[in-house]
UniProtKB/TrEMBL annotation:
The lineage of its organism: Bacteria, Pseudomonadati, Thermodesulfobacteriota, Desulfovibrionia, Desulfovibrionales. This is Small ribosomal subunit protein bS21. One of its GO terms (biological process) is translation. One of its GO terms (cellular component) is ribonucleoprotein complex. It comes from Desulfohalobium retbaense (strain ATCC 49708 / DSM 5692 / JCM 16813 / HR100). Belongs to the bacterial ribosomal protein bS21 family. The gene is rpsU. Keywords: Ribonucleoprotein, Ribosomal protein. The keyword tRNA processing does not apply.
Length: 66
């Protein structure tokens, strides 16, 4: 669980940036977006396969340009 301890002389804005960075690194926001609505396992699998296909095509395009 992300958390930032703020001292007496710490800047609030800097502490807020540190906290946001920790939340992003922990993946809390992406997890929240995933849990906004229920998704059937078959839909999850199809999305995962589509993402893998997209990554592969991107990698192939990148290799062709080099």
């Amino acid at each position: 669980m992300p958390g930032v301890i703020i001292g007496d002389h710490d800047n609030f804005e800097a502490s807020l940036r540190k906290f946001k960075k920790q939340v992003e690194k922990a993946g809390i926001l992406s997890e929240l977006k995933k849990r906004q609505h229920y998704e059937k396992p078959s839909i999850q699998r199809k999305k995962k396969e589509a993402a893998a296909r997209k990554r592969l095509l991107k990698k192939m395009r990148k290799m062709r340009l080099l």
